[in-house]
Amino acid sequence: QRRGTWGVQAYSSRVRFAMYGRVDRGGSREGKKSLRKNKIVLNDTVNAIKKGNLPADSGPVYSQPPPPLNDPRHGCAIVDSLCHLLNRQFDSDQLKVLQRASYSGVEAFIIMTTDPDKLELAQKLSKQNEGSMYYLAGLHTDMIKRNNDKVSTQRMEQLKEFALKPEAVGIICGLDFGRDVSIRYAQERLFESQLAVAAEVQLPLVVFEVHAAETLAEKISIFKSTTPTYDRPIAVYNFCGNEVEMGAFIALDMYFILTGRICDPTATGDVLRECIKNIPLNRLLLASDSPFTTPQNISDFHIRESRNEPANLTFVLSTLAEVYGLTLPVAAGTVRANSKRFYGLLDTKEYKEQTAETEKETEKEEEEQHEQAATTTSATAATAA
Fold first, then answer.
1. Structure letter (DSSP) for residue 290
2. How far is CA 375 from CA 97, 162, 214, 372, in A?
3. Which among 53, 235, 273, 291 could disulfide-bond with 255, CB atoms 3.0 to 4.6 Å apart, if both were Cys?
């Protein structure tokens, strides 16, 4: 009889495991103790709101305005819209890399890292180089392979925390269907979660794709149509697609961030250069993508075959100017203006002028309020008399 009872109990346990999963072992489902604790915390929060100790609806929290951009010093000053400056290839000579870039005319940098543990370092480095460096916050598709649901939640909270820093000027995310990193559904879910963060903090979006242009365009289209409150620009990074893909992105009013791929001397480069001629000039940005994607129009063999640096972005600029039939100063001015508009940056001079104008408007409003208050007081006194 005991053997039969044990058999029923064992079968019942297997059924529960099949239906609900293992309890409180791998983080896939919470145990009763954890659920009771969460319920207590939730009840305390609700009671605090009812008593007025917490705001029931605190409203949206937006990213802080970025520090002003240093005024240009070079005649062809440009912004490197994305470089991996925290890559270990730059650990030994990061300062010299920045000096060479500044000397060549690359005077501002948008850095990023695919390692969420380096987000704090990105923020710290940007703060140390205020006026010339900012960063993008985001989670790469590579992270999906190492994440479970609990870690993903923590990562998204961390992403939002660093997206709210003033040095953060955008969210970067994308879809990579060309590598066996994770299933597509998991990538799409992570991508959509980061779109939601961008909408919440109101930061521009930089998106990338590998063999996923159609899905990316579809996701962006749905996001824009279902999130009317999001009014920040969106750019596709390292574009190297065809005319159909380019047309889809243009129809979505997206920007294009071009890299050293447009300098490819092969037939593939010829096709890409012919394709980008149809991109509106006011939608073009440039990025070095260093230490990757070294421009192949560099005459020096050693530099051409070495790691890429932000200083080499001038070779991408020269190719862009040639494709559009522009002089270097005009091409540089166009790219810099586009970069400022996309990332919401102001030169120091523009920032001071805007601040002075805002102060004048504030003073004028205060004077009008004082005059209105004085008029109301006089009218009240006259009525009483």
1. T
2. 63, 48, 63, 5
3. 235
